[in-house]
Amino acid sequence: MIHNWFKIFVYHLKQNKLFSFLNVLGLSIGIAGVIFAILYWNNENAYDQWNPEKENSYQVLNKIGMTGDIWASNSIPFGETCKATIPEIESICFLNNTWYDDAPVKYGNQKIIASKITVSDNGFFDVFPFPIIKGAKTNILKENNSVAISEEAAKLIFKNEDPIGKSINYANNNYIVKSVYRVIRPSSIEPNYVFGGIQREQDKNSWGNFNYGLLIKVKKGTDPASLLKKMQNIDYVNRTLKEAKSSGQTVAQYIKENGQTTVIIDQLKTSRLHGTKSSTGRNYPEGRGNLQLLYIMIGLSILILVLSLVNYINLATASAIKRAKEVGVRKIVGATKNQIVVQFIFETTIIVILAILFALAIVELSLPYYNTFLRKTLTMNGGEFYLQLIFIFGLVIVLAGIFPAVYISNFETLKVLKGNFSRSKSGIWIRNSMLIFQFGIAAFFIVGALIVNSQVSFMMNKDLGFSGSQIIRIPFNYQERLKKTEKYLASKQEILKIPGVEGITTFAGTFGNSTNSSSGFTHNGTFVQPRNVEMDFGFLEMMKIKIVQGRDLSPQFASDTIDNMLMNETLVKTLNLKNPINTIITSGWGNDKGENMKFKIVGVVKDFNITGLQDKIPPMVFINMKTIKWNNFNNIYVKVSPDNLAGTLAKLKSYMEKNINADYPFDYEFVDKGFAKTYQEQVKQKDLFFILNLVVIIIAIFGLFALASFSMERRLKEIAIRKTLGAETDILLKELSKQYVIFCLMGFVIGIVPAYILLQKWLENFAFRIGVSIVPFSIALVSLLVLTLLIVLTKAYQVTKIDILKYLKYE
What we know:
The chain is of the alpha+beta class. It folds into four domains: 1-47 and 291-426, no CATH class; 74-274, no CATH class; 428-463 and 678-811, no CATH class; 471-677, no CATH class. Helix content is 48%, strand content 17%. The protein is built from 24 helices and 26 strands. A six-stranded mixed β-barrel has the order 4-5-10-7-9-8. Strands 19, 20, 21, 22, 23 and 24 form a six-stranded mixed sheet that branches. Helix 2 (17-46) packs antiparallel against helix 20 (680-713) and helix 22 (729-763) packs antiparallel against helix 23.
């Protein structure tokens, strides 16, 4: 029986090569889209799932003051007090920061630029218990001169030597290799080197120095809400109460003016996708997952699969007319309804197998581009993936096979054998409804692609308030931190002598990532936490950042390195300063005596985007780098001439490697290109919509072409009669195409409602965004109508040229 079914399937496959191909291709594209989404979903949800402490480990963040800024950083005394007084906390782990460092590591005469360096303390392997394959199993980083290295790093540095007990040099300090561990991926942190050396002593009493990442490991079964309450109380008692008392205020007065730090804890198990986003947007070195992009990809891939299934069902039910007599004959000779259903499900199963094989081929060929798009290394393997593939196989068979099989098995035997079935309207309303649904999905994708593209274009072309054209950012890796400013000022004069260098400046931050510090203060009862811009003279001028009131800081005024400052427009508005020039501000910075310093405002800076366009422009203060004895700048900014750029860069490379730090290779980045990275996720989404839009339109064309073909073939006798009665070609074309125009309009109305709602929600992620106008909806409607008329009229024109006698001679 199965052999006969297979022979019948092959026969119909040969008889309908084009439509069979469209069926398989449409399904394979839909299944491929779901496979891509599943691979991405599996990877994002696999982070830290290997970790046995994932449910008991938390990252500690802080929402500071009333500004709403959330920092993935803490103070040393806060962490140590929590460990000492909260019995649920088993261990704590401080990190120098939550980012990696790439720096020279030396062993003997060998020097490499090591990547993924982390500086932590003895609690690191309590939270991330990577398997130890050599050396000490416990208390690995108890001494500050200890280091643990990964298998890969051990092979790179020591080749076949045993690394345990060997000494390596990092940041001009020697460290003894205590252990070698195996990195298990994916993980929120995947370091190649974990150096000891958290200098707790220097900050042990500094509750206000939020300089360290903090992770805690708690006892199994600990209630997170109870734990959080205890941690919040520690901050309240040791910071809020003490600072209110020292300022001579009641606690209520102090909180009203200064706000209160809110402690936040994120469980390691869920922090990548569902954790609280810090101000940097990157809580762990391996980054945050993009939950929105993940949902978009899952949602759109499901839509495309549904579109493919609808397309398949439409084609299957429409082509059923050609098999109506076959079903009637089989029923006459004794076939039951169930046997016919099983036969057609069997045929669907073969088509789905072919579609899945095609889909796997599409995914395999496209996976390198997909990995580049997501910056991943996804592969099609693992038991979970194969189980999901089997589930997709079963689901597609059920959704694609059951309805056509039941529909075909319900044909009335006598009607189809008498030849009257072709005039029956059975099933037509279902196919038309599905076609309208296809138009709706196509409208959704076209509108979505247009709006996403408009937002990304707006971001790429918006006036940022500064100009990074022909300005390069160069890391300034000078090792003697206390002499860093002095070295920069001396180097500045030498670099200006290099041909092609038109200017040089610096500030403590990077465009796209904000500044390196923030300090809060209160003025006239209003608390603010502005970003600190410690800058060299000429920074604003070189970056073409405008002064809207007063003047820029200048070396002509001695007080500009002592107690003068600038504010941006946002901060002036926040403090409600009507006449800001010459206003005296008591800052949050302390002098050598521990007293808060007073500054005079001498200028107001026009707002500019220092972070991405997703964020509002923060309040900012600008002071000269000599005013505060900090060395927070890590880069210099050099304006170069476009003429002989290669020669200028070569001379800069020679100077930096010879005079600043020979251990670091010369590196640079154009400022405008660096800022463009802030919206690379949105560029991804634009590209994703564009690709999926093409896929949807292709599938919709398949469905529309096939359905129009079947529909018009059913009306060949009607067309022949109309032509016999004198109907003109243009009248016939109008009659044949008008229902599809109506379906197109109905589908468009259905599709634009969810498109408008969801895209408005997407645009809310941006502080700077476009308004949704009628233009993209108009373009989508015109595009759909043109596409529909092009396909339908082409087929309609073809059928109007039929041989009349051929279709009337049997009547």
